[in-house]
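=== Structure Prediction Worksheet ===
Name of assembly: unnamed complex
Input type: mixed (protein and possibly other molecules)
Chain count: two
Listed entries:
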Amino acid sequence: MIVLLFDNHISMKEPLVHLESATTGYHASTVLRHVDFKVYPEDFIGIIGPNGGGKTTLIKLILGLQPLFSGKLHFPVGRPRMGYLPQASQVDRSFPITVKALVSSGMKTRKAWVPFLSASQKKRLERMLDEAGLTGYAARPIGELSGGQLQKALLCRALIDDPQLLILDEPNTHVDKQFEQELYHWLRQLNKNMAILLVSHDIGTISPMIKSIACVNETLHYHPSNQLSEEVLKVYNCPVDVIAHGPVPHRVLKSHDHE
Amino acid sequence: MSDFFSIFHYQFFQHALAAAVLTSVIAAMVGTYIVSRKIVFIGGGITHASFGGIGLAYYMGLNPFAGAAVFGILTALGIEWISDKGKVREDSAIAILWSLGMAVGIIFVFMTPGYTPNLMSFLFGNILTVSLADIRVLLIYAILLILLFGIFYRPILYTAFDPEFARTKGIPVARYRYMMSVVMALAIVLSIRTVGIILVLSVFTIPQITAMLFTRNFFLVMPLAALWGITGSIAGILMAYMLDIPTSAAIIFFLTMQFLMFKGIILIRNSILRKSR
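=== Predicted Assembly ===
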């Protein structure tokens, strides 16, 4: 019961991340307009929306990879440690890097130029690889991994710094169903210790485990529940493909009415 | 046979061997970075743009390699800046700098009064005329590179592999990339002395892809590429001596043969393994 009590929505007052009227884009084109968004330490937010709607731009903004045109990005309790899992397509699988080196690249050291890992870092690396079942692959190049194994290695890289905020961009592409189930199991466990932002185009599979939904399509609509029905989509004017993974798939297509 | 070995007693030949070894070591480290990042085309741009510096230096009566170094570094920084800002198509920008450099070089060489005897040696290199001073410069640069890759190995690897992720970890990615641009430009310009502008890219790519047949660990690719560079270039120098053909062409020929031989062996081995299964 106590565990349950702690698990359920004891939101701390201070958010980890606070975006205020944020506007950004690339060159002359605006991708996100006046976005207000808060991430609390226990959040598990699914970020959905159409392709090109600004999902990835939103997380890059939070990660500090995307400059703001206007608005503000605060970290009320200091910049949290962030773990980032980029889209699989961003990773060059032919690059000559071993699984071990890939995962160690997630460790932030004050002295990045020290060429060797410390004893405690090595221990942490070994434990991490062991938990992911990648110990046998440590010295292998990433090109030899399966899609699921590579995602595990990338997740290890994101987690090895013990992040307060885990940011995942489409972690369920190019992986099999078994890995997807494993991933969701892990994320549920991890959410006990960290906030999670998960970008997905496939709301059907992620909806059971997320706590809330942010729909991004140039603007952002926050929905503080994981129930995303047709009614909700209507209310939030969210143009998203809902493909339920039940026996009968259904599809809802709605479009934004811009003010 | 004693005739064959007597060549090793000549000073020019010893210099050539030393230059081959040192160029191979320099190219191995920088080339592994270039091949891994898939920026061989940028290397080509730097190489050819540096010819503009050679021509200008000739015209002004300065050291041509100083001119090449200045043009090479500016081109490398310019390309990195363009790709950083993403405002111009990167490949087109490289092509422009590539041909502009050659054009500027040709114009200045043409305008220089009198005969320019070493022009061919810039285009094709001449390892047999390498001086002790050249070898000293190569040696110093090789040692600098070993120190640089030794100390900054992790950030160099991380920023080459996934610059965005590296930025989220607080690594000053732009600073490392610009540093590597300068490192690349200097390595290429120094190697022009031995293999020449037209063929220099091969020592930065062929030994590296040969090494990657054996390992896909960045750290191990570097020494293995140095080894294949050294064996290929020494074999090339010997063949050039015996057949009386240009050294740089013979070196490139051997580097390529070496690659094809290992690739062939691996293909045959794999097909045998597949059959026996």
